[in-house]
Amino acid sequence: QAAKIHTAGGSAYAIYATGAGSNIAFESGDLDLKSSANYAIYAGTGGKITLNGIKLLVPKSTTTADAMRTQGGTIEGVGRYTFEGRMTSAGTNGKIDLKMQNGSIYKGQTVISGTTAKINLSLEDASEWTLVGSSSLSTLDADAGSSLIFTISGAADFTRISKSESFSLDDGAIMKIVLGDYNPVDGDTFNLVSSDLYDISKNIVFDFSEAELADGLFWDIDDFFENGTISVTSIPEPAAIAAAIGLAAAILTWHR
I need a surface site. Which of 23, 29, 62, 94 has the fewest CB within 10 A? Predict the structure, then answer.
């Protein structure tokens, strides 16, 4: 049985904690939350909310309202999360710290407002984050089988992480690229991730199954490991060239 909190009214939060000693903890991940306020979950200065998973979270609007917001408070947790909407950390020492596990599904934007605010996300056990708009956060870690999903809708219109202190992808982590209503051309460059520190395994997986290019064009991922950028080129990747040379040599040998 899920804990169900559905609110009505313009300023009715689903979960609200503010002031020193205001701590709210939910040990179960079976939380069903719905709010008609701008913030479904709100932690003000001194407040602390612990959410060890969310079964369902529906904010007032997934595009203009925060699913979670800290204003000098803390929202933290470890568990399975399923929700859509923006996460904002603001105010002095505001912090959102979530370890998303067991196939968590998140779609939304993360926003840091203020020099001391933090957002730390960890994707584990085949969890996924579908990015919306331009996100900023402190740290992002993704393990094997977990996915980051980026959408490219134009030469300058694509979802991205515009600011991060640390960006880490383990062996087997997945970068999935989805093309919207746009056909990339030779020379297009997409800076998907801007970070102070990149710790990206050479053994991550790029999934371009929903980002097929026109004939004669190829995705170039070489720069991604250093600066978070992918691009479109008419020159095949070295692996493709090597395969072509090998095929030509095999044909020549056969004819001989």
Answer: 23
